[in-house]
Design a protein that fits this description.
22 helices, Ribosomal Protein S5, domain 2, Heat Shock Protein 90, alpha+beta, five-stranded mixed β-sheet, eleven-stranded mixed β-sheet, elongated, Rossmann fold, 4 domains, about 35% helix
């Protein structure tokens, strides 16, 4: 006899397979990353193990959604079973649970690919995150797409029986989570997947119908597929409301329901912000979009895919429909459901469909408006959002010309006068000096480093605020956007700034910088440095941007910004970087001493060595490597020896 639960026939433990089954039965080892993950689940001590049911029910719902979509073109896949459902069956005597669905099902190859080997980065990324998180936040399971394996938190053995829609073959997958799994033929009356969990000792709480129903109502009430719970031979009772959450009126939705919807669509933690809207009239759609409170692990993947699901009249169509959400909002999780699109949409049709474009515009406008409102009403909370997603949102300044003004309002930056806190462009403009006609900025690898850059010493000394931009995207958007409120953006690392018209504060200059400058001596030194350095620099000139440092490098007026040029060269987007301008501080003690020597000796050998050393020092300050470290070390040692009487 075989043990029957629902319409699935599971061979009882210890029963031998038939000869035909044995011939195609196969035992395999798990992929290394999956084996590590299973070990983590088997030996877990998490207090919220109940989320295993959320994950398995969510997978079952997705399987129904996918078949509903496939059936648009091939209705025969549904046969006489068109009503989708998920069943949770309890066998108290055997201490087993079965979670089954009549969705798309899996073939033998899909069982192996989906349950034994994970080709994507999800598992490895999950393990890496868990290694960082000492507390072991099991809620991360959903984000990384490894929810099936949560079954091993409560089960000593897991069996999966599945039959792909449109086929007659069924397959049985079984494992105790110890390193291997077996795949063999099976009997199954209809399509779909059934997962049997043989519960561990101490997990009897999950054999109660009320307990399971409560978990389903808590985590899965928003799922549009009905979920039934059946205890033994009793009557199956529906545990969820089975209506699409996004289709309900906003007033009918509770915060807890939005939270669980967010988990269902792959979010972790609580949603930081939710946007719920319905449009009727010329264009009908509903949307429920959530901004995560935590940064997704795949936020900066090169594909830059979004994670908003497209539905058409509550039928799932696509996970990442091109053009539905701009890439700079790819952190959003949720659903957009259109009443106007045809159900038989191909990817090519999606890309060029005008309805998609209109929905995208409306959805983007709503999200940006909600973000602007949040920034005004809860600035401290908005700073948290910006730390997580500001670097992504700034991509819109580069890509989305139509919405630049809205994005400018959302932009937050650290500046030389913000005390390490974030400031808006509105804040910056409100603090501009009289006569200042530009928004000054500097880009680099991190805000602390650029804040110490010698190129902005003169700006700080004169009270001119400088934006400290440290995200890679900053080098791009800042060079393509137009003025903000009539004020152009100007790089502090380029020449051509008329700082002389702004008076420095009395205490801005270093002690040795006070006193008259010997203009003739400085002019002679500039000429000597030009002669010595020749084509390695574009020019040498006295600078009013330096107050503490002796020298710095700046880009020519029409050259690429310095940090952008280095970044493009590192990625082999350009060849050699154009020579820079070497600026010297005529008030610095070292430059004064060299100028006096130049005035008396002209282009001496000692000054030629000093010229090389000044250029190398400017490179080091800029964070660049010197072309000849050995020569640099020798020159520095010789200079120190002379200074200390060697």
């Amino acid at each position: 006899m075989k043990a029957h639960i629902g319409v699935v026939e599971f061979p009882p433990p210890g029963q031998a397979m038939t000869d035909a089954q044995t011939q195609t039965s196969e035992t395999r080892g798990f992929q290394a990353e999956v084996a590590k993950l299973l070990h983590l689940m088997v030996h877990s001590v998490y207090s919220d193990k109940e989320i295993f049911l959320r994950e398995l029910v969510s997978n079952a719902s997705d399987a129904c959604d996918r078949l509903r979509y496939l059936a648009i073109e091939n209705a025969d896949l549904l046969g006489d079973d068109a009503a989708f459902r998920v069943d949770v069956a309890i066998d108290g005597k055997a201490r087993e649970l079965v979670i089954s669905d009549n969705g798309v099902g899996m073939s033998r190859e899909e069982l192996i690919d989906n349950l034994g080997t994970i080709a994507r980065s999800g598992t490895q990324a999950f393990l890496a995150q868990m290694a960082k998180d000492k507390a072991g936040d099991v809620a991360l399971i959903g984000q990384f797409g490894v929810g099936f394996y949560s079954a091993f938190m409560v089960a000593r053995e897991v069996e999966v029986t599945s039959r792909r829609a449109g086929t007659s073959e069924a397959w049985h997958w079984t494992s105790d989570g110890q390193g291997e799994y077996t795949v063999a033929p099976a009997d199954k009356a209809g399509r779909g997947t059934a997962i049997r969990l043989k519960l561990r000792d101490g997990e009897d709480e999950f054999l109660g119908a009320e307990r399971l129903g409560g978990i389903i109502r808590r985590y899965s009430d928003h799922i549009a597929v009905p979920i039934f719970v059946k205890d033994g031979e009793g009557e199956a009772k529906q545990a969820n409301s089975a209506s699409a959450l996004w289709a309900r009126a906003k007033s009918e939705i509770k915060d807890d329901q939005v939270k669980e919807f967010f988990h269902h669509v792959g979010g972790v933690g609580d949603p930081w912000l939710s946007v719920h809207a319905k449009a009727e009239g010329l264009m009908e759609y509903a949307l429920l979009l959530c901004v995560p409170s935590l940064k997704p692990f795949d936020l900066f993947e090169p594909s830059r895919k979004h994670h908003v699901k497209l539905y058409v009249r509550r039928v799932f169509i696509a996970e990442d429909a091109e053009g539905l959400i701009p890439r700079y909002l790819r952190f959003l999780k949720g659903v957009i459901d259109s009443q106007d699109l045809p159900l038989n949409l191909s990817r090519e049709m999606l890309q060029n469909n005008p309805v998609i474009g209109k929905i995208a515009q409306a959805a983007t406008r709503r999200v940006l408006a909600e973000l602007e409102k949040k920034a005004a009403d809860a600035p401290a909370e908005y700073e948290t959002f910006w730390e997580n997603f500001g670097a992504v949102l700034k991509e819109g300044l580069y890509e989305d010309r139509e919405r630049r003004e809205e994005l400018f309002k959302l932009l937050r930056v650290r500046t030389t006068q913000s005390g390490g806190k974030l400031a808006s462009l509105e804040d910056y403009v409100g603090r501009m000096k009289e006569g200042q006609d530009a928004v000054y900025f500097i880009t680099g690898d991190d805000a602390e480093t650029v804040a110490r850059s010698p190129q902005i010493e003169g700006f700080k000394a004169r009270g001119l605020e400088v934006l400290l931009l440290a995200d890679p995207v900053d080098d791009f958007w800042i060079n393509v956007v137009g003025p903000y409120k009539g004020k152009a953006f100007k790089s502090a690392t380029r020449g051509g700034h008329d700082l002389a018209k702004f008076k420095p504060a009395e205490d801005a200059a270093a002690p040795e910088a006070k006193g008259e400058i010997d203009e003739a001596a400085i002019g002679t030194l500039v000429a000597v440095l030009k002669q010595s350095l020749d084509k390695r620099v574009k020019d040498v000139r006295a600078s009013d941007r330096l107050t503490e440092s002796a020298v710095c490098l700046v880009a020519g007026d029409n050259d690429l910004d310095m940090h952008l040029a280095r970044m493009l060269k590192a990625h082999k987007q350009i060849g050699d970087i154009a020579p820079r301008v070497l600026e010297i501080n005529p008030r610095h003690a070292l430059i004064r001493a060299l100028a006096a020597r130049a005035k008396g000796e002209g282009a001496s050998a000692g000054l030629a060595e000093a010229a090389e050393l000044l250029l190398d020092l400017a490179r080091v300050v800029e964070g660049e490597s010197v072309p000849d470290p050995a020569a640099f070390a020798r020159r520095l040692a010789d200079a120190m020896a002379r200074a200390y009487g060697g």
